[in-house]
Structure formats: C-alpha cells, structure tokens
Amino acid sequence: MLEPLSAHFFDRDTRSVARDLLGCVLVREEVQVRILEAEAYFPGDSANHAARGRTPRNAPMWGPPGHLYVYLCYGIHTLLNLVTEAEGRPAAVLIRAGEVVTGHDTVRSRRGGRLDLIGPGKVGQALGLDLGWSGRPLGQGLRVVRGPAPPEVRTAPRVGIDAADPADVAACWRYIAAG
DNA sequence: ACAAGGATCCTCT
DNA sequence: GAGGATCCTTGTT
Description:
This protein is of the alpha+beta class. The protein has helices at 7-10, 14-21, 104-110, 120-126, 166-170, and strands at residues 25-28, 31-41, 68-73, 77-83, 92-102, 117-118, 143-145, 152-156, 174-178. The mean pLDDT is 97.
C-alpha cells in the first residue's frame, strides 16, 4: 500500500493503466485520495487532447510516463491526468473520481465543506492542484501508491467528448471501481 | 489582438 | 433539469 508507483507502471497500454489505477491512492502531503474512476486517452484516439497535434498545453502528454498533465476546464476546474506510454506517444489517464482516505479537514476547506470527489474537477480541487503542476513528475509533491484492487471493475463510455468520432465516443474506455 | 469554446460543478427552480 | 460561472488555450485576423 505504501509502495509508490514507478514510471514503469505507466509505461504500457493506457487502458491497462487506467484499470489498474483503480484502488490506488493519490498522495499530496496529508491528503490521500483513493482512485475510483479513470478514463484512458491514447494515441489515435480522436477524443484525446493530443489528437490535433502538439501545443504548449498538451505537451506533457508526449513526455515520459509517470508525469502530470493538468489543464483547466471551463475556466474553473483543474483536471488531473497521469501521462502514460513511452515518450513520444501522447497518452494519459484522466482521474475522474475518488474518495478521501486521509486529510478530510484539508479537503473540506478546499471544497467548501464537501468531501465527495465524484467528478474530475473535484479531485483536482481536493488535491489543491493548479496549472503549475502540469508537466511535473510524480514524486515531486504528488505521488501514487498501490492500493487494493476493487472487487469489481465496470467499464463505460467516456464523458464529455461528444465532438470525437462516434466510435471513440461509444468506446468503453472509462473504468469504474464497483463494490 | 480577438473571439470562441471547453474531458465541469454548483445553485436554483 | 436548466443555466451561469470563469479564464485559459487555440486558431484566426
């Protein structure tokens, strides 16, 4: 449970990483968040931010695995992605939901008294992330440690990607811890 | 330099 | 269940 995930963990198929991240725990200082839901975005995927080429924002997705890709959504929410696959292959896992393990008081103060972390903007807020975290390697302020795999994993289409190709919209590349 | 829009969340009806 | 918040990123002039 205390073993931090190495870059090696992220250096493989993004969908496998997304599934295996369920149950693992994000750790920043006293706050620990167990990952309950994640989505895979990988090379050749029209819903991927990287699908239209490299820009300053999405550049971390091309970088080495095990780094952060943080971006601002709707001007308000910081969404946390963990970069996967070999350097040069733009891919990442979006952390869509979690549950607070420790640091409840800190999360409440960051979240206006709330503790629920169902939704990617809430996860970023609970961890106190901003755009300055994008591109940083895991281990420098934020790390992920192994946790027990959930008893059951469900899959579903990804959320909020209606502009992508229909086949990619329909694909079940969202992984949800159940049970 | 400008305009459009976004891998969302919260409040109010 | 609808709508507003809010600001960065991007592509275009």
